[in-house]
Amino acid sequence: MGAEGHADGTVGKALDVLDMVASHGRPVRFSDLLTQSAYPKATLYRLLQTLTHQGMLTLDPDTGTYALGVRLVRLAHAAWAQSSLAPIARPYLDELARETGETIHLAQMDLGQVLYVDKRNAARPVEMFAQAGKVGPAYCTGVGKAMLAYLPPDALEAALARQSFHRHTPHTLASREALLAELQAIRKRGHAWDAEEHEAGIICCAVPILSRQGRVMGALSVTSTTARTTLDALGAQAPMIKDIAAKIAAEAESWRFPEQV
Amino acid sequence: MGAEGHADGTVGKALDVLDMVASHGRPVRFSDLLTQSAYPKATLYRLLQTLTHQGMLTLDPDTGTYALGVRLVRLAHAAWAQSSLAPIARPYLDELARETGETIHLAQMDLGQVLYVDKRNAARPVEMFAQAGKVGPAYCTGVGKAMLAYLPPDALEAALARQSFHRHTPHTLASREALLAELQAIRKRGHAWDAEEHEAGIICCAVPILSRQGRVMGALSVTSTTARTTLDALGAQAPMIKDIAAKIAAEAESWRFPEQV
DNA sequence: CGTTTGGTTTCACTATTTGAAACTTAGTCT
DNA sequence: AGACTAAGTTTCAAATAGTGAAACCAAACG
User: Fold this and answer.
1) Least buried of A62, A70, B11, B118, by fewest C-beta within 10 Å?
2) What's the pLDDT tens digit per position in B59-113?
3) How far apart, in whole angstroms, are the C-alpha atoms of residue B207 and residue B219?
4) Which CATH superfamily is domain B83-256 in?
5) Using a CB-CB distance cutoff of 8 angstroms, which residues of chain B are in contact with residue A134?
6) A123/chain B closest Cα distance in angstroms
């Protein structure tokens, strides 16, 4: 993860450091960060100090370790609440979960990766915070492919450049070419499959959420297992999922243009 | 909200702008931010540009409005997962919710405000993301007072300086003096009440979560209504709540010192 | 079609950031 | 103990990055 692309300015560097702290699962010491950071000692030190002072990081005085601060959680709450899709989609996800009895995912695109912004789980009622905010690969998940398929060429290129193409299962489309062919098929079909491409036994049907102008706003999927159903049976529900995606898109758009004065 | 205290350096200013965007509930236009920002046009413009480029904000090309970006949601997921308290406390909150059948809150301190990091709701199973990340006042909530009571003098002073002391109900302790007296009583008693101080009819019993060295890590509360129970009845559960708080603290601490190597 | 409003760019000026190196602690080893 | 080492903090001149008044551009307005 080392050298983040192009860190513009001090702010970029600071955020880079934030990511670095986030990428370790646990509180990190100064020296740990130093070894992997390319920044010279003093620079890194001051960045950490600033971020800590700003509440984005916390420094445990006992252990001398840095962890992500609470200010982030507060900001993220706002981010989630105003990312238009998530709060609007909420009741629709409930409905879809009730109708299908399966697991529902709502995702958005984040730098070539899939970011899950909400979820309904068939079995356990709902999970928390911990669930939303997770990231996953784009090239081998239903929601990922559904979004990729409708991205404009330049954005698609940028996203493709960031795919790792790891062969998770025998069904994974682990090359750029195979994926591009599949994306075309998705555009034709109108929805994406996940045919055990990410995890064995897990299948899903996903549709993109598109704005009126055709911009990709996110994706919505219904997930199940091969033990419980088949791709064809899931596909039968595609029209309904598409319908709900359209409703979410419509509502999100009208919300974006509030009656301003 | 205007002039944020002391924004050190460029990073401080950038984060200040982030907060500004967050504080509006909806996407904002450049000029809206400009009017309330004190920063000159060009400066604000560049800050927004940087933040957008970094994925902390998104600029809707159609409407020309800025909203919080998805990178925040991803960061916050990590923040939540590594803020040691929340993930560790999870099973204990479940237990407490089951035992008491009441609403449970887990909170931490954030710049003089209470930040709820997790929650169990008696009636509806669990709510999402939207719930965690909320902030509330410290001087008139159970968790807030429980934490204030055990803060070291300088931190307490800093927190007090940020209280607004608004009289939400007739029972609100709306002065510094009244609050200080109550904090002393809390230290003596070992747990805090909320005797309808924030909302009429809502009462709660809260205990701090303290590290071995006595540092305030957070607070835990059981909330109910006057219609359903009384403060005394809630107080009877204080020992159990305290016990759970201690368990959470112990586990969080041992997690903080992982067997390194 | 001139004017206003909202957004973007310029450019000389300056303040902030930079990072090698010196300096403190706080451990560790003999 | 005293000498060594590792981890964190501070300094300071040089350089870079940020600043902001003002000019500019482009739509929308009247």
Assistant:
1) A62
2) 887 788 898 988 888 888 788 777 767 778 888 888 888 888 888 888 888 767 7
3) 6
4) GAF domain (3.30.450.40)
5) 77
6) 13
